[in-house]
């Protein structure tokens, strides 16, 4: 186990919660000046931290514990009927791993996705500076799954490789292809990637009880939830 005792943590001031109405949130983040490598990042992920750009954070709200870290144990995962249909529906899509998404093609897809799917979110309006800061990493752990349909870029999954799994950081895709359920297909693809790499988990970030837009995460079973600092299996 990596020694994390040297890391300093900082807390934000209370601010409006992004997930639940009429709630205040407090976030703890790792000292931005700390030296982070894949081992430290992996250990922090097991403790419920997530990455946003070069920052590692987790919720730390005194009056609410609705944000619960979750991860899929890939060998125990059994897709439901809807997920199986999604997988079959998208077998005409090609998936390739690339090392960079700093291109006009990638950014324009991200821009369309934010403008049409997340106008009410923190990332609207999109900008290239925001895109580069949020979706890239400085620790040599990030890679990107490209989804293409007849050579056309239709989706990108930003994915970090940890010591014990893949961390699904963010996915953006062509908004007009809603019937393909590309968000679901992206997670299923990352589960397959983890299996091929003999990695036991796919980390999905936070499931937020009571937040409709986060309910999809609990549909992947079996799943593990971090409760009282212990990973608990939910079938």
Task: Please name the defining characteristics of this protein.
single chain; 235 residues; alpha+beta; Aminopeptidase; 2 domains; four-stranded antiparallel beta sheet; 5 helices; 14 strands; 23% helix; 32% strand; globular
Task: Please specify the SSE layout and strand pairing.
Layout (H helix, E strand, L loop, with lengths): L8 E3 L3 E2 L7 E2 L1 E4 L7 H9 L3 E3 L2 E5 L7 E7 L7 H9 L4 E5 L5 H14 L10 H8 L6 E8 L2 E10 L3 E9 L8 H15 L4 E8 L14 E5 L2 E5 L1
Parallel strand pairs: 11-12
Antiparallel strand pairs: 1-4, 2-3, 4-6, 5-6, 7-12, 7-13, 8-9, 9-10, 10-11, 13-14
What would your notes on this structure say?
The chain is of the alpha+beta class. The protein has 2 domains: 9-69, no CATH class; 70-234, Aminopeptidase (3-Layer(aba) Sandwich). It has 5 helices and 14 strands. The strands form 3 sheets. An 8-stranded mixed β-sheet has the order 8-9-10-11-12-7-13-14. The longest helix has 15 residues, at 182-196. The protein is globular and about 50 Å long. The relative contact order is 0.18. The model has no long low-confidence stretch (mean pLDDT 94). It catalyses: N-terminal L-glutamyl-[protein] + L-leucyl-tRNA(Leu) = N-terminal L-leucyl-L-glutamyl-[protein] + tRNA(Leu) + H(+); N-terminal L-aspartyl-[protein] + L-leucyl-tRNA(Leu) = N-terminal L-leucyl-L-aspartyl-[protein] + tRNA(Leu) + H(+). Keywords: Acyltransferase, Cytoplasm, Transferase. InterPro entries: Acyl_CoA_acyltransferase (IPR016181), Asp_Glu_LeuTrfase (IPR017138), N-end_Aminoacyl_Trfase (IPR030700), N-end_Aminoacyl_Trfase_C (IPR007472), N-end_Aminoacyl_Trfase_N (IPR007471).
């Amino acid at each position: 186990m990596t020694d994390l005792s040297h890391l300093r943590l900082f807390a934000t001031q209370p601010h409006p919660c992004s997930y639940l109405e009429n709630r205040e949130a407090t976030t703890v983040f790792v000292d931005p000046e700390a030296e982070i490598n894949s081992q430290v990042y992996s250990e922090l992920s097991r403790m419920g931290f997530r990455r946003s750009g070069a920052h590692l954070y987790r919720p730390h709200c005194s009056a609410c514990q609705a944000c619960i870290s979750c991860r899929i144990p890939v060998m125990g995962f059994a897709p439901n009927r809807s997920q199986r249909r999604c997988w079959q529906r998208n077998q005409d899509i090609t998936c390739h791993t690339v090392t960079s998404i700093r291109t006009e093609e990638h950014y324009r897809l991200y821009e369309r996705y934010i403008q049409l799917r997340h106008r009410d979110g923190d990332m609207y309006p999109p900008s290239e500076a925001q895109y580069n800061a949020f979706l890239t990493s400085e620790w040599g752990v990030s890679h990107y799954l490209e989804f293409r349909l007849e050579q056309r870029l239709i989706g990108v999954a930003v994915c970090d490789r940890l010591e014990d799994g893949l961390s699904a950081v963010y996915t953006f895709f062509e908004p007009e292809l809603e019937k393909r359920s590309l968000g679901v297909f992206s997670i299923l693809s990352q589960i397959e990637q983890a299996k091929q790499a003999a990695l036991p988990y796919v980390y999905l970030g936070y499931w937020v009880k009571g937040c409709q837009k986060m309910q999809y995460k609990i549909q992947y079973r079996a799943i593990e939830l971090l409760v009282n600092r212990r990973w608990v299996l939910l079938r």
